[in-house]
């Protein structure tokens, strides 16, 4: 068993103690006589698991009492449709900021569904090398919400601050930065996130929604997309993705055990600094993202030579540093250094980068 | 580690060799250096897994080439909306047979979404103690499809034969009987099933759809509910529930290893016969379902005394026979004896039933 450093953007690394615990209790969970995978979602054993998961997440993120926590399926992509379907009736129109591929998809989905939506800001013309600056006056005061993607996995950018949207609820996709650092939940109307980057295996979608926003769903919304139905049924309107929720619980437990999100942030800041400081100290690799928009989770860089980029990803893979190839739509390299990536993984990456640069001089 | 017999209706037992294999390779899969849970869904290692899963299922169910196999999220409940949204444009109206709670929910969801749907048959007035007889002349010739639930988990009923729907495509929820016996896929337009009863942990939904039915989706269907989008992207329009698909693959592999669905059916017939033969041989317990509608997977029975029923479920649980309580909406007892329930489990149940009857005479 030779574990490698996996820089995948998602699904991605999980903490080794979490995997080991899951393996140890996979066949038989505690005194239950069965696997968590086999438990009725209505059984006391399982109810304890999902309740613990929610309680731990609330503690971890300091989620205010007037927010519901939903454990859903379908990925952030399903929320691209669910967001307007659940909120549009608030005022009839909604605003979007487009800072990369996924926020673009969210905007297009709302358009496809026929809603009155407006893109109020985008950095597309700059190839998304930074996030747009959003000020209150840019947002339509009668927008049902402003939608943003807080951390852009593909481009490696992140909003340096939570935009001030005034009275307009802020709806944010946090898929690739959730529980990487403390965040003031009360600044958001809705937070959603696919679990497969920083929280659990793929197949779980987290929605955190302010209670007063549960009353604006379309009549013709598919029941399974309606947050209110899910909230009223404690995420158990139908069978939830039970095992993946259990895995999320183990991850929350692990973060709490090391000191919560303050400590997690400290560790993530240190890892990201190691990599960005190296990038800033040399000129073999170029970090395309503007400094104020840099993501702490996804670090993108290029050599400036597509063939060298390819060689880099391939040789890094052979050296046990996997999945460093950038997203197929942008090329170059991307190191996703989520919570579960150890500091040693980033050290190994920087050492490899130095070695590669020395051995592969540019013309 | 003391595994018990788990008669849960879903999530439910998984084959022990499958759980043991999953546990053994949970932390590190083969030479990959990572868990399957951590693999990028775009990586060669994972692509091999999902392709194997589909190939094995095709072999197991003998799925014709003109059917697409989709690995989705959201449960059968999401398909209650997806079915009309994907098919209604074929003719503009659709027919439903209501044989229990889930087929009733499917019908109501289509109504809620505003479609022209008709219930052509129901056995509600008989408390769903049998399935309706469906003949071709009952179906509107211009229906986009006829929807049925093939096996009714809650009531313990099943259609004895696939209804002949003529030229109208048959759409069937097979959640609680999929891969329990061979079935002629070519008789269906669409088969769908939540995985958590006979196939995998919760969080995976299987859709098998005839290719010519992929062109009738509504314009305003959420992209994630559109079968065609999923088919064109090999179930990877977004990140699929990777680990649950891997678990399904292990289950398919296990069934193939013991001889495929013919052998599986033989085993299931034998298990169900043991229980039904006992029920028919005595008069302490009553099996409410009419013989020709009996399910091979979910066996319901009552003592006729609610207090005794309660005592039965409670004492059985203490004896290591768990989750025998009937669905909260119907009461009594239900033994779900899916593929993974060993013959010995049903033997133990029958022995317990005899013992309980002897010790608890009715007044």
Detailed description of the structure:
The structure is a homodimer of 363-residue chains. Chain A has helices at residues 16-24, 44-61, 75-87, 101-112, 227-232, 242-258, 260-280, 306-318, 343-359; strands at 5-6, 67-72, 93-98, 116-122, 146-149, 151-152, 157-158, 170-173, 190-194, 205-210, 298-301, 321-322, 333-336. Chain A is α/β, with parallel strands linked by helices and 363 residues long. Chain A contains nine helices and 13 strands. Chain A starts with a strand and ends with a helix. In chain A, the strands form four sheets. The first copy, chain A, has a seven-stranded mixed β-sheet with strand order 2-10-9-8-5-3-4. In chain A, strands 1-12 form a two-stranded parallel ribbon. The first copy, chain A, has a two-stranded antiparallel sheet with strand order 6-7. Chain A is globular and about 65 Å long. Chain A folds into two domains: 27-257, Aspartate Aminotransferase, domain 2, CATH 3.40.640.10; 261-359, Aspartate Aminotransferase, domain 1, CATH 3.90.1150.10. In chain A, strand 3 (93-98), helix 4 and strand 4 (116-122) form a beta-alpha-beta unit. In chain A, helix 1 (16-24) packs across helix 6 (242-258), helix 2 (44-61) packs across helix 6 (242-258) and helix 6 (242-258) packs across helix 7. In chain A, 35% of the residues lie in helices and 15% in strands.
């Amino acid at each position: 068993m030779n574990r490698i450093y996996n820089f995948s953007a998602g699904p991605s690394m999980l903490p080794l103690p979490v995997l080991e615990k899951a393996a140890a209790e996979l066949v038989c969970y505690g005194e239950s006589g069965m696997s968590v995978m086999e438990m009725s979602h209505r059984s006391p054993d399982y109810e304890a698991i999902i309740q613990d998961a929610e309680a731990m997440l609330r503690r971890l993120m300091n989620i205010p009492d007037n927010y519901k926590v939903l454990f859903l399926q379908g990925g952030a992509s399903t929320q691209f449709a669910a967001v307007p379907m659940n909120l549009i009736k608030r005022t009839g129109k909604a605003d979007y900021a487009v800072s990369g591929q996924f926020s673009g998809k969210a905007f297009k989905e709302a358009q496809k569904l026929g809603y009155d939506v407006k893109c109020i800001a985008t950095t597309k013309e700059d190839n998304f090398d930074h996030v747009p600056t959003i000020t209150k006056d840019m947002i339509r005061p009668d927008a049902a919400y402003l939608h943003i993607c807080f951390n852009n996995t593909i481009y490696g950018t992140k909003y340096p601050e939570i935009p001030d949207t005034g009275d307009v609820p802020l709806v944010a996709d946090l898929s690739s930065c959730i529980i990487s650092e403390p965040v003031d939940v009360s600044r958001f109307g809705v937070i959603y996130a696919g679990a497969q980057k920083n929280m659990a295996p793929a197949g779980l979608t987290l929605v955190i929604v302010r209670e007063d926003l549960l009353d604006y769903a379309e009549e013709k919304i598919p029941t399974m997309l309606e947050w209110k139905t899910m909230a009223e049924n404690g995420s158990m309107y139908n069978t939830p993705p039970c095992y993946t929720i259990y895995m999320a619980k183990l991850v929350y437990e692990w973060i709490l055990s090391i000191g919560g999100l303050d400590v997690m942030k400290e560790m993530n800041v240190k890892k990201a600094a190691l990599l960005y400081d190296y990038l800033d100290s040399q000129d073999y690799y170029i970090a395309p993202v503007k400094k104020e928009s840099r993501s702490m989770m996804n670090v993108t860089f290029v050599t400036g030579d597509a063939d060298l980029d390819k060689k880099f990803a391939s040789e890094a893979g052979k050296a046990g540093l996997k999945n460093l190839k950038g997203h197929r739509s942008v090329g170059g390299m991307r190191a996703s250094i989520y919570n579960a990536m150890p500091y040693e993984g980033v050290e190994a990456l920087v050492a490899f980068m130095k070695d590669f640069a020395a051995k592969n001089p540019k013309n």
